[in-house]
Amino acid sequence: MISIALPKGRLGNKAYRILEQCGYTVGELSDDSRKLVFENEQSGVRYFLVKPSDVAIYVEYGAADIGVVGKDVLLESGADVYELLDLGIGKCRMCVAAREDYVEDTGRATVVATKFPRVARRYFMDTNREIEVIKLYGSIELAPLLGMSDVIVDLVETGTTLKENRLKVTEEIFPVSARLIANKAAYKFKENEIREIVGRMKEVTAK
Amino acid sequence: MLIDTAALPKDERTYLELGALYEKRGYALFKMKKFEEYSLYLDNKNFLGSESVLTFQGFGGKLFALKPDVTLSIVKNARVPEQGNLKLYYRESVYRTERGGTDFKEINQMGLECIGALTDADVRDICLLAAESLSVIDGEFVFAVSHMGFLAAMLDECGVRDEERRHKVIECVRARNAHDLAAAAGEGADTSALARIIEADTDFASVLALVGSLAKGEAASSAAAELKALYDSFGDSFRGRVKLDLSIVNDIDYYNGIIFQGYVSRVPKVILSGGRYDGLLARIGKGQSAMGFALNLGELNAFYPREKEEAL
Questions:
Q1: Which among A23, A181, B187, B260 is least buried, having the fewest CB atoms inside 10 angstroms?
Q2: pLDDT band at B88 (very low <50, low <70, confident <90, very high)
């Protein structure tokens, strides 16, 4: 039996559609229920629905053998897991954005508001710039508008939210999409089963 | 009074069984202080894989650190005989943060080091002893082997010279991430051989064939021969549990030959790690060769709870 952690919500539903096409079905997962664990002995899989930001943790600690997680969440968690496949869904970009009239003051540390402090610190450290991070949990775009931060580090899908708030992308950090990850110990003991899932998902996503 | 070892917690039982095993193989117990001068860890932070060290100031202003690692202390302090090898085992606490967190943990470690003029047979014996150590903990184990010499040769061959890019490529190998490999290596690099390594399974014989087909230079060929000799040295009882997993990568400056990790089925994380680290000795001005491994046994009890009747 392979345990699969899926993120609750849109990305999880898309990932499940792929797994369904691969033959790993559990009928009731698509139903609008409050259940969090779904199992099908015949397909040999058990699904857990968890908060998107927790998927990598469930996999790293071995509660799930594999999982589907956005590259943004994966890098922010720093989880020591295998990253076996780019599923090509949930595509967007991790970007630095600022007010349209923003001009960087290189004479002081840049104040960065973000849900992704680890990603932000690493990016600015790599480019040798001093920053001060303000961790926020939502409505990140407000921070530069209210003068609380100089820039934000956040996910940008179409750019509409930024435009509506008179913000612009100043730097692109990395492209984001959903990844299939695996616990390193589970991979050692269930290698054939996990490789079978990876192979089937590769075929489906390549279509 | 005789003590019934079966009633002991799993970690205590394992310490006793492994201690007996290592002494039988000629390793002597080595006790050491709980702290070292901080500069030892600062100078070798890449060997530790972390900069998080618990420090305190001694009399006279000298900065000390609670040991985050045992190998560095042994290499620094142990007196290696002119003839033969120094063979030591230890049971010590180390103090580290985990997963880049900020909370320090006391981790109970057991392990061994062999320092001197290591022969190929010594290397194979240490690997076998590491696999045997896993079997003492649980018959359901996996001993996964890799080779730093081979991986370093493959990195050189793919043409990534820039230090930052090499680091990113190594991260991809470590995560079995073939999809980001080409972007990590940058333009002009040929990552096809590394991608084949990442995408391969871990069946020793089949990966060995792949290694043989990819090995062009002298370093890679000699690594392939060393891996084959190691595989041949394992008896039938262990051979099915020995894997060739080239996604295991340690720091190139410190580790040179065979490296390995060990897993047991009930514990969802690596429980044993080690390898050949001649590079560390070279960096601290010693010309010998060395190999060893460490087991993190502190968390075993959580995964092997005592049966009620066993504890009575």
A1: B187
A2: very high
